[in-house]
Write the structure tokens for this entry.
Amino acid sequence: MNLILNYIFIMVILGASIGQMLSRDWRWNIGFLGTQYLSMFWFVQAIWPFNLAVIKLISGVIVCLALATSQKSSASFANPETSWPQGYLFRILAAALIVLATLAITSPTSNWLGIDNPLGTWASLLLMGIGLLQLGITIQPLRVIIALLTLISGFEIMYAFVESSALVAAMLVLINLGLSLVGTYLLSVENMEKIK
Amino acid sequence: MSAPAIWIILPFIIGIILWFIPNERLVTWFGIGFSILLAIAVWILPIEIPISIGNWSIKISATMRILGRQLILTSMDQPLLIFFYLTLCFWVVSSTIAGVKDKLIPYGFLILSLLISALAVEPFLYAALLIEIAVLVSIPLLKPPYTPPGRGLMRFLTFQTIAMPFILFSGWLLTGISTGPEELSLISHAAIFLALGFVFLLAIFPFNTWIPLLIDEAQPMSVAFIFWIFPTIGLLFGLYFLDNYSWIRESNYLPSILRSSGLLMIVTGGIWAAFQKNIKRILGYAVIMETGYSLLALSINGAIGIDLFIGLLIPRTLALFLWALALSIILRNISSAQFSSIKGLGRKYPFSATVSILSLFSLTGVPLLAGFPIHQSLWEQIGLISFTGAIWYAIASIGLFMGGIRSMAVLVASSNERFAIIESWPQRILLSIGVLTLLFLGIFPQWIAPFISRLPFIFNHLGR
């Protein structure tokens, strides 16, 4: 049963990551981010005590809500960067490369770290890869913040396999919340500028 | 009572309280007062030695426990704490005199206390998390109100955040390593992760592009604080790794890696500074070069490398803040820092123009200025190891020097401006004191020698 759920959640992460790349509406982006947090919780709760793992889910929900409240309802990524190709095809190909690359290194990474859940390793690498890819092709504050949160989510899954310190978990939660606050601050300032 | 409670928790609480005080003048006076008090307290209060006051006897313990972890500040850390709090005071005074209106002072206290806790935490790998929290706290400091976030700010946030997972993960790997040869592959992986973490954290080439961008986007005094505290703490954090892990410290490759990275940073910074047409960006390139000089100092084996690294701290701090103060005054009513916009402004701001040029020259290592003695020693030591390295060092210094000469030519160029000093008296006085200090430290470097000589004792193995 767990294995089936693992497969389901890895598909959810895959869909959310690619959706993250393709979406140009902040509602979808934040929705995908929330889905990523749900999947992260699933993989972490398999290793950590449920009480500790659920903190990640709760912090994820708070992060998404904080980011959502900072957005105007009419806002969108209508003004994309000009330095990179912005078409769907480019983004799908770039995401596909990340998917393949992370899939290829999942097994050696699991062996090296002694992780007995390769799907968890793939989920972690995939999130980190997609986060890095997004960071490389955008400077829009909301996208950057979501990319950083995605990157950290991936890292948190992998780190949960090797370290179960409650203090580290608490500080990582603090960093997630801090990043969302920074995002809220940057976006509110940007919105104020637009209003001016 | 414990030392971390006084010099970490208390400043953090002060920072929060100051943030809620609406009166800026009051915040300034409290900021100056508290930073001086904290510096004096470090000076006079012994750690782990009972003090008798009448019938009372109190002892400030070095350790404080938080959630099973420890914050430790020993008597060996006292010179470093004095340096940090006096510099904070200098920054508060400079920011006030520069006329900076935003809530800089509370953020200064918060960031400094978080970063001191990063140096004090045991196990020290938690420092990566504390540094990341300090990065997040510093964003409002770097983001002026009513302006959209710029490319430099986003890159700063991104690169500093990417550093954290690398360092945390390398920390996990390091805990599993003993010095036996059977863990060779683990050692190489840990070294790669650690190196990547520090490349991002210290803005080492090529991940330093945010530095010149950031200074172009934000208030010079705010950026100067970030340019001072993050590299200083990052480098000290790196030294803790060297101090704790003998296999890194004794690696044959480390000196050449540090030397190559350092030379690359100073040469690229110097060349870009030479051709730069934006006076703020020249400061950014000088900051890149300063990290490079620190890496060069650390590439020198033995006590002399650590002495040179620590010797760079005070002249750098002084020059950096004076330069930022001068730029804040010159650029206060100008939207652009391009040479075309500041042409002839030395006639209106002679004190600021003089200080900005002398600070730049001090960072270059021009004789009679604060940076000269230490740069001369560093250059000599690099020359003993690698003649080519010394040549590149000279090229880099000439590059920054050229940037200074060009800035000077622009500031004193003839323009429609009449010669009329419009700097306020407090600005003139502080800038004059700054120039005198730059000269005194250049002519009498032995003045700060007793203070600097105590700093290497924060390490158990390095510099011994």
